Amino acid sequence: MPESQDFTAPGGAALDNLGVRLHDGVATLRVWSQNATSIELVTFDETDLDWVTDEMDLVRGPADVWEVTTDLLLPGTRYAIRVGGPHGPGNTFNPETLLLDPYAKGLAQGDGYEEWRSVVIVDGFDWADSRKPRIPLDRTVIYEAHLKGMTKRQPDVPPALHGTYAGLAHPAMIAYFHSLGVTAIELLPVHAFVPEPRLLERGLTNYWGYNTLNFFTPHNAYATEEARKQGPEAVLAEFKGMVKLLHEAGLEVILDVVYNHTSEEGIGGPRSSLRGIDNANYYRQHPDGAYIDTTGVGNTLNTATDAGARLVLDSLRYWAEEMQIDGFRFDLAAALGRDSAHEYSREHPLLMAIRDDPALDGVKLIAEPWDVGLGGWQTGNFPDGWHEWNDRYRDRVRNFWLSDIDYARRASAPVGIGGFATRLAGSSNTFSEDRGPLASVNFITAHDGFTLRDLVSYDVKHNEANGEDNRDGADMNRAFNHGVEGPTSDPVIKAARRKAMRNLLGTLLLSAGIPMLTAGDETGRTQRGNNNAYAHDSDLTWLSWEHEDWQNDLRAHVAALTRLRRENPALRPSRYARLGEHTPNASVMDWYNQDGETMEQPQWTDPGNRTLQYAAASTPVEEQANRILLVVHGTETPTDITLPTIEDATRFVSLWSSADEHPDVKSESFSPGDVVATPGTSMRLFRVE
C-alpha cells in the first residue's frame, strides 16, 4: 500500500506490497528476510498438497526484500516457500521446510498438524451500499463474544449455520443484539489459528483462538461446511458477508487480535512461517538465541524491527479496509510497545503508527494494556487515541460489591466508597485529562476469568477439567459465593447472588467510560467455576438459550440499562469536567451522603460510610441537557436516604433499581428532601427534573 505524503509506515516504501500481488496476468511474490541466503517458491496440486508442481527461486532486492514475478501464482494456486540461511545463534533456517507466506490471504490444510499451504486469493466481494456504522465512542456498548459459542446452540439459527460467520449475522442474532442494546460485537480471535500440540495430546483444543497461524486469513473452521468445501475464497466471502449484514443492521465488528506472539511457540515448537523465514528478526531473543518471552506462550513478536512492526500494521490495514472491520482489541498490547531493549514505551513507533495511519482513521483501538514481562503492566499509559481495558475498574468494582461484602460479614467493610466513586465517574486518577473518560473500557468480566454468575457463586476456581491439576487460571478473583460454594437451593443465597449480579451490571452500564459486556452474562451463564476455559469447545463454553425466569429478568435489566445509558447523556461524558469551568461534553458531578448533604473529605475514606448519591449534569453540544442522580448503598443493612436539594431541581423520577427482580416500568416521583427506603447492597437511578 503506498504511503500518504505525511505518513510513513515502518520500513517505508521498500516494504510495500509484501505477499502476492496479481497484475497484468501474472503475480509478484515479495518476502522479507535479512538473514536468508536463498528463498524458493514451491507450488502444489490443488487436491494433493504434497504434490509439488513447480519451483522457482526468488531474488534478493533492496531492503532485503526477495521477489519473483511469475504466471505460476494464478488465483487459487496453493504455494509455500523454502528458505535457506546460515547456522548460528538466532537462526533456525532449514531449506527443506515448507513455510507459509506471512502475508497469505488464504490457507489450505492437508492431513497433518503442519500440513498448511498458502493460497492465492482474488477479492471479488460486492459491498454494495454497506458502510461502517461509525458509532460515536460515548454511545458504544461492546459485547465480547466467541463466534462459535454464540450460535452453536441457538434454536432460531438453522443448524447448518450454527457456530459460523453466517450464523452470527442471521436475523435472529441481529434481533438479539438489538434487544440487548449493544452497538459493537467484539469477537474473540478469528485470525487463522491452531491448537497447541500439548492440548491435542490431552484430548483438548484451543477454543479461544489465541494461537495465531496467520495474520491475514479468517479462521477456516468458523465458516459453513458449504463454504469450506468451496475453498478459501468462499470462506473469505462468508466472513465479509457477515460484516456486511451486521453493518447494515447498525452494528460494528471489533476483532480481538493476537499480534504479540504466534503459534510457533518456543524453540523446538512448530516451524510454520516466521521462524523459518528470519527467526533472528521476527522474534525477541537474547544474544544466544534464547527467546525473550513476555507473552507466556514461548515467543514474542519483535515489533522493534521494521519487518515485525510492518507485518502488524499491514495486517490491520487489510482487515480495516478489505474486510471493513470497525475496531481492534489488542491482546497483551504492552508487548507491541516494547523497544529494542525490550522495554515498554508509550511513544513506540508501532503504537504511534497504528494511531496515525490514514488507513486506520476512525478505527477503534483498544489495548489490553499489559503483558507478562518485566514492566508489563501499563494501564493508563498508552498514547492518546488509544482506549484501554481498565483492570483497575474491574478490581475496584468487584471489591466493592463482592469481596468487601464477604469481609464485612466476618468483621466490617475494609474500605469506604471513595475509590469506587472514582471508577464510577470515569477513572480520572488513571487516565489523563486529554484522554478523558472514554479512554477507559470498563469491564467486570471477560472471556478470561469467571463468568458473572460464577463470580457471585464461587470463592475459588475449579479448573480440574483443564488437565493441569487446577494450577492454571487466576487465583485472585475478588469473588464471593455468598455462603455456599457453587450451586445451591437456598433461596436467600440465590436472591443475594441475583442482586449482586444486578449491582455489577448496573455499575458497568451506568459508569462513565466505554462499557464491555461479556456474552452470556446478561442471562447468568455459568462455566461451573472454571475461570480459564480456553481449552473447552463444548457445552461448558457454548451459550445456552434455554433460560429460567430469573435469567430472562436479568436480560431485561441489561436491556433497560443500555436504554437508560442511551437516553441520558449525563451517564456518558466524553471529557472530564473542570471545577468552575464549562467543559463541553463533560458531566458536572456533585456528591452527597445518605442524608442529602455534600460529601465531606473524611467520608470518602471512612469504611463506615459506603452510601453516596452521585448527581451528574451533562454539558452536551448536540443533545438536550440532562441530569441524573444515582444512589449507591454498599452494605447489606437497609438504610434510609434523604434526596438532596439540587439547584433548579423540583423532582426525582425513578428510572431503575437493582433491588427489583424485574425492571419496574413505573416512574415513581420524589421531591428534594424526601426520605427513600433503600435495601441493602443496592443501586437506584433517578432522572433529575
UniProtKB/TrEMBL annotation:
Pfam families: Alpha-amylase, CBM_48. The keyword Hydrolase applies. It comes from the Bacteria. SUPFAM superfamilies: (Trans)glycosidases, E set domains, Glycosyl hydrolase domain. Keywords: Glycosidase, Hydrolase. One of its GO terms (molecular function) is limit dextrin alpha-1,6-maltotetraose-hydrolase activity. Its EC number is 3.2.1.196. Residues 119-565 form the Glycosyl hydrolase family 13 catalytic domain. The keyword Hydrolase applies. Belongs to the glycosyl hydrolase 13 family. This is Glycogen operon protein. It comes from Microbacterium murale. The lineage of its organism: Bacteria, Bacillati, Actinomycetota, Actinomycetes, Micrococcales.
